[in-house]
UniProtKB/TrEMBL annotation:
<dbReference type="InterPro" id="IPR002931">
    <property type="entry name" value="Transglutaminase-like"/>
</dbReference>
<dbReference type="GO" id="GO:0005856">
    <property type="term" value="C:cytoskeleton"/>
</dbReference>
<keyword id="KW-0963">Cytoplasm</keyword>
<feature type="region of interest" description="Disordered">
    <location>
        <begin position="130"/>
        <end position="153"/>
    </location>
</feature>
<dbReference type="Pfam" id="PF23265">
    <property type="entry name" value="Ig-like_KY"/>
</dbReference>
<feature type="domain" description="Transglutaminase-like">
    <location>
        <begin position="234"/>
        <end position="302"/>
    </location>
</feature>
<dbReference type="Pfam" id="PF01841">
    <property type="entry name" value="Transglut_core"/>
</dbReference>
<comment type="subunit">
    <text>Interacts with IGFN1 and FLNC.</text>
</comment>
<dbReference type="GO" id="GO:0006508">
    <property type="term" value="P:proteolysis"/>
</dbReference>
<keyword id="KW-0645">Protease</keyword>
<dbReference type="InterPro" id="IPR038765">
    <property type="entry name" value="Papain-like_cys_pep_sf"/>
</dbReference>
<dbReference type="GO" id="GO:0030018">
    <property type="term" value="C:Z disc"/>
</dbReference>
<keyword id="KW-0378">Hydrolase</keyword>
<feature type="region of interest" description="Disordered">
    <location>
        <begin position="39"/>
        <end position="58"/>
    </location>
</feature>
<dbReference type="GO" id="GO:0008233">
    <property type="term" value="F:peptidase activity"/>
</dbReference>
<dbReference type="InterPro" id="IPR052557">
    <property type="entry name" value="CAP/Cytokinesis_protein"/>
</dbReference>
<comment type="similarity">
    <text>Belongs to the transglutaminase-like superfamily.</text>
</comment>
């Protein structure tokens, strides 16, 4: 072994330059039966922009020709200074057979590898070839420059910093997500790259694997003084903190031959409070990768899942947004220690980062483009705050003020929404806005802090006023079109109004009235609305029981399908006339047909001891009777209306009954009136 060390030293010293440490070199030595057929060629390193770093030697590779090299044993000679510098980027354990010698202050490491290790080593060298240094042998990536910078603010062109078609990754993503870590990092990367053929695909495979296999370690994140986990520990536990995510990603990229850097900084992540300031030590770390001649940003910590703020538990929930995110969007929740890593022109200051509106990743994932106001804190004007959102496609929204869906009017637009909020008290309030997008669940996309110094007591919205308010693209989608009142608020001076709209064939409509003050109860919510159908339109006649504000809710259901009615939207009805005191409409029963029409009497309460005229249109009916103390038949006129009169003397209730088949004697109740006490 002494001969071996001496031979290795002589071979290494021939490559050493004065004043610089030795880098990687290959030395062939005759140990046992060493045979080398062919040629060794010193390859001139290609010049590629790198971040200034430590000096290192060139790379010797085997010339590929018909005279292949046969190697019985291979020696790899390292400068120990170089090896120490690369210690955080190596996954190999020191070989027990390595011999260390010192000469002239330079420590050498000699690795001895037998014949059966050749294929894996040569593969390692081919990966290292892509990381070869510049003319000075530097292998550290270069700092970002002008060509890496993107314009700020966001130009809405793409969520990504480079043109991507995510469909091209379907096969690769499936492969990478199913790879298991069997032993070391090198083998894992090798398995991941079996379906990857470009640097972009190599980065993608590594990203997908980490996001689907590494769990966020909440305990480690809370222990501020804890060191970032080592890659070997992460593979064993499958858990780490943000430093561990970033370190693992960088390490795997370097093994794959892709330039990668870890970027520390501040973040608006778990525990962030709207409008908070940042100082002291950095709380997060992410990565920059060099692809196609430009730096790009990724955050595998936030790509892997989220932490529930109430339970402090981590849940795997893949988030595509943080893969090659456009820098103008990345800066909303990531502020790097070095402004150059913002990759923006112009870069943002820390104060701007603190004050700028924080759009959560779901804001962009669900197709949002912009929101106004653009600051996270809003001051009310005359007791009202207004928020508008622009989206690239029709989207459903909802809001919560202090955890409740109250005190606001949210109306949908073709490409966005408008929200008017009326805080019920002075002080500070939390406003959350949620969007549904293409998924079946609503996700939080925006948070504002409202400062209210005045409450308009005249604006008191019903607690049952749900969202959205007013007809929209969604009501059209549900079968309600061409409304007579396109605005969400309807003012009535006499407490009555009539609302009509076209209804798609096969759709049933149901309406109910809700107010905060009596006499409306759950049993009478629909008694202040009388529904009429003519041609292809539905008319809702509404009579308010008193002055105030009411929510008129509209529901629909497909006639042939089982199940409940679905809420679509509501109107806000307003009446300031304190003299209003309309009674309920007559109670209708199941046999009251969709196309029936009632002209009179519309009041559900009839005066006593009076002759009351009746006029209504009924379809497919043989006979109609009105029953009080006695029974009175109605006759069919030439216009198709059944009409006649009835006396309310001596009775408390009056019914309208119909005979559908002239061959039968069974009458059905369709309407019920009450008679005032004498």
């Amino acid at each position: 072994m002494a001969c071996l060390a001496e031979s290795a030293k002589r071979g290494a010293l021939q490559l050493q330059r004065r004043g610089s440490a030795l880098s990687r070199a290959l030395a062939l030595s005759r140990v046992g039966q060493l045979r080398a057929r062919g040629h060794l060629q010193r390859k001139q390193p290609s010049v590629r922009p790198r971040r200034p770093g430590r000096k290192g030697g060139g790379i010797m590779e085997l010339k590929k020709d018909i005279n292949a090299v046969s190697i019985d044993m291979l020696l790899i000679v390292h400068s120990e200074k170089r090896r120490a510098a690369q210690g955080t980027h190596s996954d190999q354990q020191a070989d027990p057979s390595a011999l260390l010698q010192r000469r002239g202050g330079t420590q050498l490491t000699v690795e001895v590898h037998p014949r059966d290790a050749m294929p894996q080593l040569l593969k390692k060298f081919s990966l290292a070839k892509r990381l070869q240094g510049d003319k000075n042998g530097n292998t550290r990536p270069r700092q970002p420059g002008g060509k890496d910078a993107h314009a700020y603010p966001w130009d809405r062109s793409s969520l990504k910093s480079m043109s991507l078609d995510l469909r091209q990754f379907e096969k690769l993503d499936l492969h990478a997500s199913q790879v298991t870590a069997k032993s070391g990092l090198d083998e894992l990367v090798s398995d991941l790259l079996q379906e990857a053929h470009t640097d972009l695909e190599r980065v993608r495979a590594i990203w997908i694997w980490i996001c689907h296999h590494i769990e966020y370690d909440i305990a480690a994140a809370q222990e501020k003084d804890r060191q970032a986990f080592k890659p070997t520990d992460i593979l064993r536990t499958q858990k780490t903190n943000c430093d561990g995510y970033a370190g693992l990603f960088e390490r795997m990229c370097r093994i794959a031959g892709v330039q990668c850097m870890t970027v520390p900084g501040y973040s608006k992540g778990f525990g962030y409070q709207t409008g908070q300031s940042f100082s002291g030590e950095f709380d997060h770390a992410w990565n920059a990768v060099y692809l196609e001649g430009r730096w790009h940003l990724v955050d595998s910590t936030w790509g892997s899942g989220l932490v529930d703020t109430t339970t402090s538990k981590f849940t795997f929930l893949y988030n595509e947004f943080y893969f090659l995110t456009h820098p103008a969007l990345f800066i909303e929740d990531h502020f790097p220690d070095n402004k150059n890593w913002q990759l923006l022109k112009p870069p943002q200051s820390l104060r701007q980062f603190e004050n700028n509106m924080y759009h959560k990743s779901e804001f962009y994932n669900k197709g949002m483009l912009s929101a106004h106001p653009e600051t996270s804190m809003i001051r009310t004007v005359n007791g009202k705050a207004t928020v508008t959102i622009e989206s690239c496609a029709p989207t459903l929204f909802m809001f919560m003020l202090n955890g409740k869906q109250e005190h606001g009017l949210l109306s949908l637009r073709k490409n966005g929404m408008k929200l008017e909020v009326y805080p019920p008290t002075m002080g500070t309030h939390k406003l959350q806005i949620f969007a549904k997008g293409n998924s079946d669940i609503y996700s939080s996309v925006l948070e504002y802090t409202l400062k209210c110094n005045y409450v308009d007591m005249g604006v008191r919205l019903p607690a049952e006023l749900h969202q959205p308010v007013g007809p929209s693209w969604f009501s059209e989608q549900m079968g309600i079109m061409k409304p007579s009142h396109p605005d969400p608020i309807i003012h009535t001076s006499d407490g009555r109004c009539s609302i009509s709209f076209s209804v798609e064939e096969g759709i049933n409509v149901l309406a109910s009235l809700h107010g905060d003050d009596g006499p409306i109860t759950e049993e009478t919510q629909r008694r202040y609305i009388f529904q009429l159908h003519w041609e292809k339109r539905t008319e809702l006649k509404v009579q308010l029981p008193h002055a105030g504000k009411f929510a008129l809710k509209i529901f629909v259901k497909k006639r042939q399908e089982p199940g409940n009615y679905i809420f679509v939207f509501n109107y806000l009805l307003c009446c300031a006339n304190t003299k209003v005191n309309w009674p309920m409409f007559p109670e209708s029963f199941g046999n009251w047909g969709q196309d029936n029409e009632l002209l009179e009497p519309l009041s559900g309460v009839l005066p006593a001891n009076r002759n009351i005229p009746f006029k209504l249109k009924l379809h497919g009916i043989a006979k109609v009777l009105v029953k009080g103390q006695d029974t009175w038949p109605l006759t069919l006129n030439h216009e198709g209306y059944w009409e006649g009169s009835c006396s309310t003397a001596g009775c408390q209730e009056v019914y309208v009954m119909v005979l559908e088949n002239a061959n039968h004697n069974f009458y059905s109740y369709i309407l019920k009136y009450k008679v005032n006490a004498q």
